[in-house]
Design brief:
alpha/beta, eight-stranded mixed sheet
Amino acid sequence: MSTFNITRVAVLGAGVMGAQIAAHLANAGISVLLYDLAAQTGDPNGVSVNAIKRLQKAEPAPLASKEVLTSIEPANYDQHLDRLKECEVVIEAIAERMDWKQDLYKKIAPALGAESIFVSNTSGLSIQALAESLPEALRSRFCGVHFFNPPRYMKLVELIATSYTSSEVLDKLETWLTTTLGKGVIRALDTPNFIANRIGVFSMLAAMHHTQRLGLGFDEVDAITGPLIGRPKSATYRTADVVGLDTLAHVIRTLQENATEDPWHAYFKAPAWLQALIEQGALGQKTRAGVYRKQGKDIQVLDPETASYRARAGQAADELVQILKQKDPVARLLGLRQSSHPQAQFLWAVLRDTFHYSAVHLGDIAQNARDVDLAMRWGFGWSQGPFEQWQQAGWQTVAKAIQEDIQAGLTMSDAKLPDWVLESGREGVHQSDGSFSARTKQIEARSALPVYQRQLFGERLYGEARSDQVLEQETIWQNEGVRLWRLPTVDAGIAILSIQSKMHTIGNEVLTGILEAVAIAEQSYEGLVIWHEAPFAVGANLQQVADAVEAQAFDVLEAEVAKFQQTALALRYARVPTVAAVQGLALGGGCEFAMHAHSRVLALESYMGLVEVGVGLIPAGGGSKAFAVRAAELARTTETPAEVFPYLVKPFRQIAMAQVAKSALEAQQVGFAQKHDKVVFHADELLWTALKQARALADMGHQPPAVPSRIPVAGRNGIANFDLQLTNMLEGGMISEHDYRVAHAAAVALCGGDIDSGTEVDEQWLLAVERREFVQLLRTPETLARIRHMLTTGKPLRN
């Protein structure tokens, strides 16, 4: 097979899943042909055209930028089969019917290219059975690739081979899915529902069983099976609504029909209340009613006893919360078992039965325990998989408790724990060099595919060797706010700066640390990368700001703002390349620092914005200045280089409305990042890519940019134009007087102050203007109230 360069992919099936897979491929810059049946009337591509239109309105947004929509082209099977040969990969994503899939395969197989890889996105049908319906020449290039929904946000992809699938095909697909689409790939066995749905749906069925047994409400169960135990906020029943009750019922039915020898088979059926909701068309979130529904502003929950809805009121009991607050995981789990409270009994029963089920089926469904735990982390959002949670709580202690409950008839099945679970000396299934396989009875190391060498600090499970234990690190310098370090075996010449404060807020100690780090890098290294785990930085340390305001220390505050600006300029004009590796939130000062670096490497899910107006302030770490300079640069390319106002309208709106770019692609479009900045789809590759970028800039002979000295500004005419808009909004009751005051300050900073339009100023002038406007706002009681409200509630105050 030739080099695996993917430029065009076909997606067969324009339903919700197929369209969303197409959207994420387009996010990655891949050209997509989205196929469906030819419409009987009108445009033959009508089905696909409508699916593409729906992508623009879907929530959460499947498109990282609406601009990528142009990469998706509608097609139909009647007219465009011959175009399949253009596609290196063809993804089938039609409805979960074996006969429908097999009929489609007969139609499209002759049209595929000689080297095209063909995959099915089935969530549980037998991949081997599907392969049998294909021509022999195609079988080696066929496998299952199960995306989890929604594909942009869910990390897990299960890769399922058949007895025919080429190992080369699997390796290339895993590499492509990992680095190009940003996925966590698990090689699952061809068993009903594969790994994540097999364990996850069993856990949901166990929860449903014990909910009824203990007489708990659905909302009560959701209150205790979410973040309290390291699960997503959607918990159990809300997750069912999000997935779709019809989809959940289908997955349960797949287990019922195909896992007939399973010791828990009696539980593989949809409860009566679930069937009743489906028959009523109440399918969950997509129909606005399911287990939950919204009535006006109130959320109601189904009462299965009465088959009617009631107000949601479920809460975790204090006794349960106290058990779960214990730091010792052994004490937590045993505390649940020993408690007589129904909520504690429920949690112990669900966890115990999930451990039991996972142990009995480990050898049947997965190559090793690591694959199960990562599948549950990535596919269901659990903070820990069942085996690592069990291991952390004391393997033998929990095993003994499970065994006692089996013997007492308390478990959902009397299936015995496998012998390997009870082996003398076993402390778990994960250890420093790998994870246990019940199939081979061996410890299996992680994949050696080269793509994983890019994940310098990849995700690790409890019991495995941590990345920092495997990869040599050397601390160069540190203070309370930052750590400067390097990776000698990766690139000893590039220093790495990591902010150490909570949420990576930027206080005085961080500013001091960054300035020192830049100076050390300039003296002794060839480049500097700013990297740490998400968030990148959520802005200034508001507690320090509020305390200084209440102490009336405005001279100190002005000096601190000047230091903030000095730090941004240090990153901008450093004699070595500075690269900001951005993931998650980069807000306020965090966004400004990223903007001032020479280059940025952005994880796709990076959310950047200048949001200072939310606390009654304006960008004053160089953010306002940066947009003013950029406006002047854009105007300089026109016939009227002094007319900069038109290029300030968009930045003013972004600042005044605290707009946040909702992806790295949007950040590039709005100017928080540059078009040439690298976007990384797998966040674990962010540091590796940033180090490579810094190295490339250094090797090309980095020169810092020239300091701009002749910057035409919009001046008082620009301010007047913005004020006119603001006055209309104020008189129309759309904004408050303080909103007006803050937005006016933003206009003054962007326009360079109250001077003649077209006047040329330098960078320091612009910094002085934004600094003055910032400190004046700090002197207002309304801004202090907004800051305090944000610190107390985490939400903005409108006053």
